[in-house]
Amino acid sequence: MLDQTVSHYHITAKLGGGGMGVVYEAEDTKLLRRVALKFLPEEMVKDPRVLERFRREARAASQLNHPNICTIHDIDDNNGHPFIVMELLEGESLKQRIRGAPMELDEILDIAVQVADALVASHAKGIIHRDIKPANIFITKSGQVKVLDFGLAKLAREQVSNSDGNYEDSLTQMGVIPGTAVYMSPEQARSEELDPRSDLFSFGVVLFEMATGKKPFAGTNVVTTLDAVLHQKPASPVSLNPSVPMELEAIIGKAMEKDRRNRYFTAAEMKADLQKLKRETESGLTRTSHSAPLRVVTNTFQRSSYRQNYLLLGTSGILIMVLVTLGIWWLRHRTGGGFGGEKNTIAVLPLQNITNDQNIDYLRFALADEISNVLSYTRSLDVRPAASTRKFATSDVDPAQVGHQLHVAVVLTGHYLLQGKKLLVTLEAIDVNSNRLLWQGTTTSDAQDLIAMQGQIASQVRQGLLPQLGATAGLIEAKTKPKNQDAYDLYLRSLAISHDPEPNKAGVSVLEEAVGIDPSYAPAWESLGLRYYYDGSYSNGGAAMFEKSNSAYERALALDPNLGGAAGNLIVNHVEAGELGKAYEQAKELVERRPQNAFAHFTMGYVFRYAGMYDEAKRECDTAIALDPGNYEFRSCAWVFLGLGENARAMDFVRLDAGSEWAAFMTPSVLLRAGKIEEARQSVNKIGANPYYHRDLLEVCMQLRPASEMDAIVQKTEATVLAEGDPAPRYEQATILAYCGKPEAATRMIKSAIEKNYCSTAGLRSDPLLAKLRGSPEFGQLLIAAADCQERALGKAAR
Fold this sequence. Notes:
It contains 33 helices and 17 strands. By secondary structure, the chain is α+β, with helices and mostly antiparallel strands. Strands 1-2-3-4-6-5 form a 6-stranded antiparallel beta sheet, covered by helices on one side. Strands 12, 13, 14, 15, 16 and 17 form a 6-stranded mixed beta sheet that branches. The longest helix has 28 residues.
C-alpha cells in the first residue's frame, strides 16, 4: 500500500506489521499533519471476531484523552479494509528498550509512574486494557510514555454493547483467552470476570521484567506458561538483580499477588507508591537488598532460603518499630527540633481531580479546605489558609517549591478518583527541605456520603499525619460536625466560588440554603459571614449585609469558639464599624494567643491602619506576609504602603489578588502615586463596572471623559461614598478628589472619615496624592482632628 492515497491520507512509509495490524506513516492532507494508519492484515479482514476487536480498539481508546495514552483520531474504511487513524509516535517500545537486560532504577520509575497514570485514567472510564505488556508501552524520543493497543480492552458492563458481548462469548466458546500468556493475571488465565486489578498484575509483570531483564514466568508453550502464572512463584527480583531496592520489590510483589484481593485495589494506589519511591530515590533514601527494608515483602516471590524467610518474618516487627522510632527522632532533631526553617507550619494544596469529572471538580478546593480545617484544631500547627494555596491548583506544581514559596515546613497534597460509586482520596505529606515523603494515607468512601468521607479523612489525618509531625499536643475537638448530607454538599460546593461580586452573590445563596437545612454547622456560618462581608463591602449589599456578616460570625463562634477565622474577621468588622478600641483589645489578645498566626498579625495591622498608625501597621503587615506569603486576604495592606509612599511594596500586596476586580481598581491608584500618569490612564480602562470602584471619577479626572462631567460625577461620588458604613473608602476616594483638583470635596470626605474613626494621621502627612491639599488652611484642622481621633479611639493603650 506504500505511496498510495487512502481517503484523504497519503501513505509515505511502512512502520511495522504483524499480529493484529500493519502500521503506516501517512500525511493527513486535510489537516496537514503526520499520522499513523493501522490496517488489518489482508488475511484477517474477513474474520468477524478480528474486525470486532479492531473496532473495539478504536472505541475504547477514543474515549480516553490522556497524555500517556496514544490518541485515536478516527476510524475509516478503504474498500472493505478498515483502518484506525492514530497519533504518530517516534521512539521505541518498552520491549525494545529492555532488550533482555535490567534497566536503571530512575528510568524504571519514570516510565512506571506514567504507565500507572494511564491506567488510572483508563480505569476511571471503566476500561480494562487486558494486554499490558512491554510491546504495548511506547517511549517517545522526549521520554513521554504512551500506552498502545486497546484491541483487547474490556469496557465496563454498562458500556458493553451487544456486539461486544457476542465477541466475548465467541472467544470463550472457541477456547480463546484474550491477552498474552506471560503477562496475564491468574483470573484472566482462568477466563474469569475481570476488574482493573487484572491490569495491575500485568503491570507488575512488566515492572519485574524492567527490573531484572527477565520474565517472571517461563514455559515451553502457552499451556505451560499459563500453568506457571496460575501456580508457580517467580524468583525474587533481588535474587536476579541485587541492585533492586526492597521497596520496588515490595511494589512488584503486591501487584503480582495471585489472589487479587491482596493486590493494590486501584492503579492510583500503585502510582502513589511508585511516586513515593521515586521521591526517595531522588533524595538518596532508597534501600537495596543490603539495607534494612522499610516494609516486609510478601510471599509473592521465592526466596533462596527458608531460614531467611523465617528470620525476616520474625524480626520484621522489631525492625519496623526501630526504624519508625529512629525516623521520628531524626525528623524532630535534625534541625534543632523544628521542621525546616519554619517550625510546625503546613500548607494543604488543592487536590487533583484525576477522574476529570466536572461534577466533582469542586472537591479540589473543598477537600483541601476541610483538611485545613481539621489541622487548624491543632494548636501546635500553623496552617496556611485557602487564600494562600488556591493558586497552586494545577497538576504540575512541585510541592517542595510551593513549600519554599509559602514558607512552610510541610506540604500536604493529594488526589481523588471516582470509581463507580466509590470516591478514593489519596493524601501525601512532603517534607519541604528534603523533598521527602513523610506520610501517605488513602481513604475510600461512598461518593454520595460526603459526611462519612470527611470523618474518615479527619480520623486518618489525626491518627496518621499528626504523630509524624509531632503535633498531637494541643489537639482540640471540633465543636460541631455536619449533620445533613445535602447541606454539607452545598457548603463544600460554595468553597470553590469566587469572591468577586457576582459569583459571591451565588455563594451567599448556596450557603444560606446550607445553614437553613443544617443550622448547627459552625464552618458554614463562618464562610457565610465572609460572603456577607464581601457583598456588603464590595457590592451593593450595603449595611444590611454588613450586619448579617456580624451575625453570621457571632453564630459561628457561639457554636465553636475555636474558629480563628471567624474571630479575626469579626475584629475586622468592628474596625470598619468604628469600634477601634474594642477591636484593638481583641486583636492584641489574638496575637498574644497565636503569635505565629499570620491572620492575627494582619488583623492587628488593620486596626493600626484605621488608627492612622502606618508604621505600626506596616510592621504587622510585613509580619503577616512573611508568615503566610501569597494570602490574598492581606491585599488591603497596600493602602498602608501607599500612604507611606512605598509604591512598589504596595503593588506587591495588590498582586496577591491579581486578576480580581479589586486589583484592577487599585492599580491606577498605585501608578498615580508613583508618577506614572500615562500607565495609570491606560489601567483605568481595566476597572470593572461595579459602582463601588467609581471608575467614572478616575475617567473624568484623567481626561478620559469630558471635563464638563466633572462636577456631576464628584457630587455623585461624594453622596455614594458617604452613604457607606465603612469610613475607609471616604479617605481613599478623597485622595483621588484632591489629586483631581477638588479640595473642598476632598476635605469634606476626609473629615467625615475621621469622624467615623478612620484617623489617617500618617496618610495625611505622607500620602503623595494629598500634596495639593497640604497648603490649605483646612489641612491643619484635619491633622488636629486626626490626632484627636487616634487618642479617642485607642488612647494610651496602643502607644
